[in-house]
Amino acid sequence: MMEMESSKTMSGGMTLQNNNGMQGVAVRLSKVTRSFGDVRALSDLDLEASPGEFVVMLGPSGCGKTTALRALAGLEQIDSGAVYIGGKDVTRLPASKRSIGMVFQSYSLFPNMTASANVEFGLKVRGVSGAERRRRAYEMLEMVGLSEQANRYPHQMSGGQQQRVALARALAIKPEVLLLDEPLSALDAKVRANLREQIKQLQREVGITTFFVTHDQEEALSLADRIAVMSNGNLEQFDTPTQVYSSPLTDFVANFVGTVNVFIGTVLDDQIAVVPNVGNFPYVRGSGTPGFGSEAEILVRPEAITVRGDHDGDYLVSDVTFLGSNVRTRVEKGGVTFTVVQGSADVDIVTPGSRVSLDAKGTAILVRPKR
Amino acid sequence: MASIIGAPAKSSGVEGGSNVLRIGKIFRVVVLGVVGLYFIVPVISSARFSFTGSSKGISLSAYSKLFSDPQFWTTLFLSVKIGIGTVILSLVVIIPTTVWVHWKAPKIRRVMEALSLLPLVIPSVVITLGVITSFGSLPNIIMGTPVILALEYVVLALPYTYRTLDSAVQALDIKTLVEAGQSLGASLRKILWWVLLPNLRSGVLGVVVLAFAFCLGEFAVASLLSFTTFAVYLVQIGQTQASEAIAFSLIALVFTWIPLSIVTVVFSRRAGKRYRRGGGVLVASQSITELTELAE
Ligand SMILES: Nc1ncnc2c1ncn2[C@@H]1O[C@H](COP(=O)(O)OP(=O)(O)O)[C@@H](O)[C@H]1O
Ligand SMILES: [Mg+2]
Questions:
Q1: How far A104 CA sits from the closest chain B CA (Å)?
Q2: What is the ipTM of this complex?
Q3: CATH superfamily of B65-295
Q4: Residue B22 and residue B31: Cα distance in Å, rounded?
Q5: How far is CA A24 from the centre of its chain?
Q6: Could you tell me if A277 and A314 are in contact, meaning their C-beta atoms sit under 8 angstroms apart?
Q7: pLDDT at A16 over 50
Q8: Contact residues on chain A for B183, CB-CB shorter than 8 A
Q9: pTM for this model (two decimals)
């Protein structure tokens, strides 16, 4: 069977919004703490989403993303703190009483039921009549482009199709909040990219407040209205993708989201940091920025520098990768690797093994004391 | 489109694989044949013996004697009642336990498995003596009635029944299924009936078959507790009347297989239609009234 992930997009989506009248609600986690033995999976986590917002929780494996999502869903007890959905305190409500739709990382369709029966399940639980259930299940399956697969069992569907049915099943009950825990991680790259787009489009159309967990920074940057970057049960930064990428608040965020190059240079004044033989990088002062004149580590994105062929250059080219519209060049100096990404059109042709110089082009994302 | 892709793939491997396949097939037939003979030959010669006895010529006397023997029917009925009671009790105990272990405490799974094997390690005679000395003072409602036998059979059959259901549950991602159900607003009861039991059908069927067969064949404990069950009566007859005893055991074979086949057919037909409900558990649960009868 071929994957037809992209051929049918959410055709019924636009009408759906009108029919459902789904309104996003505000969601808030307040000082939520949860420990497993010695492991503090969440410590005093504060997180909120405005009505209809798409929040992505991003962080390395084991940082507490799933625990936070499960606390929101009511599937995980919390030690302290509170959870609010639509202004209501739901901390003590079990999962079955909260108005949530959840899509799990592992395939979670009921194996004994067809796609349609799976989507109908939540409605059946709520006592919706058979005819109405089937009508609605068809509508939801059509929305995710799977109405022709309605009578298939999960084992007869591809992974991507199963996750789309799971999404339809979660939305069928018209939940107030949609929670997705790495729903794409089990799929291969192409399907993943397609489905990611579909989820985003669907979320826009339905307007439901959404929390999406991932450890993939590219996924986070492309999906989110706001990204919550987490590490070790703490919230490192909670901001728009642009801000998280270009103005990371902490070292952790700078390193985890996107690629960074760490140059050694000096702080010139309150606007410029200098890297010898590369140039001046504008930066924004923060609480941890070292004083004027002192040596510092200057963190620069791959797009903020360019490569120039130069026989006397300081840097040795180790790798050149053509990425279509971009070219990624890796260079090396004194055992440290730097990555440069430039548009294919304005790149100086260099080959591995040749010597080059680097030039400053953009801004530094962070300037911190030298370790 | 699928057929176009499928067609060339089919022709490619056939030539090379055919020999291996054929040899494998022959081997399978031979093995199955030998094993089958090993089971069938004793049954056939028993059958012959039961129709001829020590005298020459064919006679049905062994069978007619048995069928007109009222004790044959009462002991059979007793064993069936105990069997049904044991099946129901086993399901009621084992299903929630295995589901709970896999959902909430997967770490103790090995421990539970080891515990379930204990009846194999401790001789059933020892367990029975323990039951007699420990529960001898219990009210007659349990101790003096076949209920005590059913209770003990639930434990003694655990090595077979628990493991059967445990591996069926293991094949499911219980935690995710339960939580998906909860997130859709379902109560645990609905999740159990609509999601878990239909997916555990084969495991439940295994428990039914194993527990029931165990009850019909068990001799030592029943005789120690002075119950004349089907198996006990069979041994009693065998001590005096050889051909009747053989006829008896053939009938026992038939009586074991008929209910088990019915259960199996009921289960697989439901499975064929569409996975739907808790399935054949219903078959068993209808007989729960009989269990209360046992208690009288
Ligand atoms: N049920 C549990 N029992 C014990 N430790 C757990 C349990 N669930 C999560 N943890 C621990 O809590 C931490 C956070 O886990 P999790 O929220 O699953 O992380 P993530 O989803 O970000 O990978 C990890 O160290 C994990 O080992
Ligand atoms: Mg996780």
A1: 8
A2: 0.81
A3: MetI-like (1.10.3720.10)
A4: 14
A5: 20
A6: yes
A7: no
A8: 73, 75, 95-96, 100-102, 170
A9: 0.78
